[in-house]
Specification:
The chain is an all-alpha fold.
Length: about 80
């Protein structure tokens, strides 16, 4: 039991020491990507999304409820 306690203590101290250590990378690399103002891929994306857009537009424009009272924001209480 005493030996297990000592091993556990050593493992916990070792984990604590490694968790508090700082790591600084010696070399940084970065890549630069040029952004162009062209819209060459817009047509292909638009043709891919178009069938879903029409179906979603029909669902989102459907009226699901009606409230006869105006729901304005006020303090301290709002309807």
């Amino acid at each position: 039991m005493k030996r297990t306690t000592i091993y556990l203590f050593i493992v916990l101290v070792g984990a604590g020491v490694t968790a508090c250590s700082s790591f600084f990378p010696s070399k940084w690399k970065s890549n630069t990507t040029a952004v162009e103002n062209s819209q060459s891929g817009v047509g292909s994306i638009d043709s891919l999304v178009f069938p879903y857009r029409e179906g979603l537009k029909d669902e989102m424009n459907e009226v699901i409820g009606y409230c006869p009272q105006d729901l304005g924001k006020a303090r301290p209480c709002s309807p």
